[in-house]
Design a protein that fits this description.
The chain is of the alpha+beta class and 820 residues long. Helices cover 52% and strands 11% of the residues.
Length: 820
Amino acid sequence: MKNISFKNFTPHIVAIVVFIAISLIYLNPLLEGKKLKQMDVVNYKGASKEISDFREKTGEEALWTNSMFSGMPAYQISVAYKGNLTKQINKIFGLGLPHPANLIFLYLIGFYILLLVLGVNPWLSIGGAIAYAFSSYFFIVLEAGHNTKALAIGYMAPVLAGIILSFRGRYLLGGMLTALFLALELKSNHLQITYYLLLIVLILGIAELVKTIQEKSYMPFLKSIGVLIIASIIALSTCTANFWATYEYGNVTMRGKSELTFDKENKTSGLDKDYATAWSYGKAESLSLMIPNVKGGGTGAIGEHKKALEDIDPQYKQMVAGSNQYWGDQPFTSGPVYAGAVAVFFFVLGLFLVRGRFKWVLLAATIVSIVFAWGKNNMGLTSFLLDYFPAYNKFRSVSMILVIAELAIPLLAILAVKEIYENPDILKEKRNQFLIALGLTGGFCLLFYLSPRIFSFLANGEYERITNQLAAQLQQNGYSGGEISQITSNFLSNLEDARVTIFKADAIRSFLFIIMGAALLWLYSIRKLGKQVFVIGIIVLFLIDMWAVDKRYLNNENFASKKQVQNPFQLTPADQTILQDKDPHFRVLNLSVSTFNDASTSYYHKSVGGYHGAKLKRYQELIDFHISKNNIKVLNMLNTKYIIQPDQNKQPMARLNYQALGNAWFVENHKIVENADEEIMALNDFDPATTVIIDKRFQEYLANYQNGKDSLANIIFTNYKPNYLAYEYKTTKDQLTVFSEIYYKHGWNAYVDGKLIPHFRANYVLRAMVVPAGQHKLEFKFEPKVYYVGESISLAGSIILILLVVGVGFIEIKKRLTAE
């Protein structure tokens, strides 16, 4: 047996300590007991309140909630998939650090693992991990509260590490790491980031296939593919319940195909094109990878940049200070995607220095990422991708694909540094290439600083918007046409000057960091620096460059006391009025907030609105065609008992809607329509209290039914749970009944006196059925098989994964301890 050499573990221990230290130092308010204010987490608390309360009270999963959008599955809101045991493994990789320091640590350790697999010196790997982890977007998502996205980003690199090991012939270890980290990646439940990871893997796989064909070494390639397929199956099995339910649900959400035929050119089999591409990166904006404020940074007032106002005409200073500092192509943004000026320089240099195919994989991945992120600014390609590229149209915010570039750039950058570290003379041998890389990065930064006007400093349509707004205001104040033209011209000139100042400050900043990076490499190559100083210099340079930019978007001002963060929703007088109503089940429409992008109402009530990116497709269409247009008949059929509106003082006030139809009602007539188009348009002109609109596909459920209403019949709502609804009714004839509940065929079952009976969709989104005559108890139960069967498979997959990790881990340790 070999003696265990703790010296070999020293750099890894140091790396972990460094990663912990910088995570906590950056987020130092955590050490004071404060919490990060995350808007998406705030909305999550509102959205998940009913589900969490039910879980705490019963120990069961509701799987459905009526707190948002009049009712929807809880799969993508808050469901505890207990069969997936990887949750405990995920905690290990966070080292128990307070949130979100645990996520920054995960960014760091995940990329560190990838660099070790690629043979990078552990000390250099610390610097590479920092270059990756401190990419600005990764911190912006933390500030926003996109925690699942951050988790998925954290596991991208180690998944790639396992795949690379498998392709390099380390089948057992590579397969185990792939299965483990892919399972954790999938557990994070952010499929868009996972999808982008698969694009990297696809590019890598194509490169490996080309290599295999050229070398005619088919068996190792086939073994690798076989191992990766098995690893993927194991990883997927751990998430069966979640993925199966999500797949089933996804087909009828906004990510699924619409049955409506209006606006065909804008539609895909998933998201509408305008919705999917709303957040598209501008072509010039792509330079933010190297110059963060190339388009002004994040949405906000120019007044935040004091130096930008120094040379502004005092007459226009206040107007300019209140103008938007961001002039990019997105509707708004929290900040740019900055990969680091130093990292971009090293990346370009790596194209000349790094040997092998892998650099071309990283270059291809970067180019794909940037070009795909242009979205509507490159609509020919984007339309093709949305129409034909598998599953591409299921995701919005196409600019998010830049996470690929954010992985590829620091990865090739540190591989370039590795080449220089191991062979300092390479820079002297390739001096011309070194100067070309310096010119393509630092040279362009300097050019942009000296000649910034090669860019436009007004966003698309901004000239017309500002001109029209100023003209309208100035006309009201009695200014003449000539005066209006002059004032407008002067203001726009001053606005552009302020934005030029913002741009130039970051252009020269990036130039200086690139010069420092180049100097560090050159001094090492001519033996003016030792290896230790060189490595420390690389680490410090990456850290200073990235840290300062990240602090613009996530800093101490984003923290608040624990009490403030844990209790984000204060009761308003309107809430208090509504909560006095003891009716167990009705809905609230809140017009005092952004109704369909706010979950505060859901915290206390069952809301017509809500906050979620995967609401039911038909409900979104109901919003677009009727609710947003204040169709009171539709609100009545949704049992909207209260409407909250701002009063004269802009304070929310609750108004009772006496026309709300209640939980269920019998109707006298029904109208059969041909398709979804006719069904949704029919809601414009009907009386939901007496008539129900039914798609002809459900006509069979009305066989032998005769219209008419028993005037003495009644139906009473008796019991409410998120996943269970009970009624008692009495009628002398079979009665067509409408329920103010959202129709969802994958799990809701109806029972009369315990006997399963069919129900169908009506009024575009609601449930209906013909109830048999007599006095009966009627129940709706949410019983999705995908969850219960899926949980069993997930548990079995988790056990297999754990046994695999333990078994392969034991074998690998034994190998290292056993003498050759």
